Amino acid sequence: MNSKLIRLDRRSVLMGGAALVGTSALPRSAWAQTPLKVAGIYTVPVEQQWVSRIHKAAEAAKAAGRVDYSFTENVSNTDYPRVMREYAESGVKLIVGEIFGVEQEAREVAAEYPEVAFLMGSSFLEDAALPNLAVFDNYIQDASNLTGIIAGSMTKTGNVGLVGGFPIPEVNRLMHAFMAGVRETRPDASFQVSFIGSWFDPPKAKETAFAMIEAGADMLYAERFGVSDAAKEKGVLAIGNVIDTQADYPDTVIASALWHFEPTFDKAVENVLAGTFKAANYGVYSYMKEGGCTLSPLGTFEGKVPAEAMALVAEREAAIRAGTFTVTVDDTEPKSS
């Protein structure tokens, strides 16, 4: 297999560059199954907020009788290729998962099974040399920007803390969009930014948040589980990410940027069944105008957010949906400022 080096955001991944036999789209005859056999492979528990959105969408399609869905969670990066092969060998026609830490190996497996469609969370764009592997990411910067507008109007000190997992594009773009929103209603805001080096370590995220509160933050961006626990204990406010956790933190979480994976998942299933699945960037289906993200209801904070801020939120959301305003996608690592 020939290889090529692809570089992105100061990271490099060795990609399989072997051309697959056939056209860029998978043959229609390969997908003559209903319900479609689908498998999910996840490196964290399905309760983890990011993966839970994928799992929820797949379960909804299963309940509707459109897919036969099974999954494996807590798969280590070293074990990921083996699980991919096992599902591919079992007759699964669509495999969905996240390969942020196993790009090279996952793409090599995809090249071995050209008759299987792979829809994988990845920081890299589609690779034409692998027509059966499409990528996605949660481009929910639209909703994140709206939560920032709210957060800026609610902080008293102007000191805002952001706790993330890793400084990869998927996280970075949401933090930048959030901070841009904060500055609209609190131009003098300062930010503490930290990454815990894990996708699922609530205790570490909580300790990091405690440190930010000690340093003056009275508003936290909870990109990871554990942050809202710290905010609750210390009596400060928080903004959620991907899922709505206000029911668990009714006096703490003001609002959240919600990710809806259903448009992404449904489009992939549709294309596989039609025989038109190919290398593409499915991240576009996470945009607000595609129904891939929304701002959560204010719930317990209804009437507590300044009216001027909510008017700006309504105006901004309408412009985003109409396509007259575009939230900047900034994938660079955010810094404290």
Descriptive labels:
337 residues; alpha/beta; Rossmann fold; 2 domains; six-stranded mixed beta sheet; five-stranded parallel beta sheet; 13 strands; 21% strand; disordered N terminus
Order of helices and strands: EEEHEHEHEEHEHEHEHEEHEH
- Rg is 20 Å
Q: What is the C-level CATH assignment of the largest domain?
A: Alpha Beta
CATH overall fold name of the largest domain? Rossmann fold
Which overall shape is indicated by the principal axes computed on the Cα atoms? globular
Helix content range of the residues, please? 25-40%
Q: Report the mean per-residue pLDDT as an integer.
A: 90
Poorly predicted spans:
1-32
Helix count?
9
- CATH architecture assignment of the largest domain: 3-Layer(aba) Sandwich
Distance between the termini: 46 Å
Widest beta sheet: strand line-up: 9-8-10-11-12-13
* Category by helix and strand content: alpha/beta
Biggest beta sheet summary: 6 strands, mixed
β-strand amount: 15-25%
CATH homology superfamily name of the largest domain: Response regulator
- Give a count of the beta strands, DSSP E runs of length 2 or more: 13
Q: How many separate domains make up the residues? A: 2
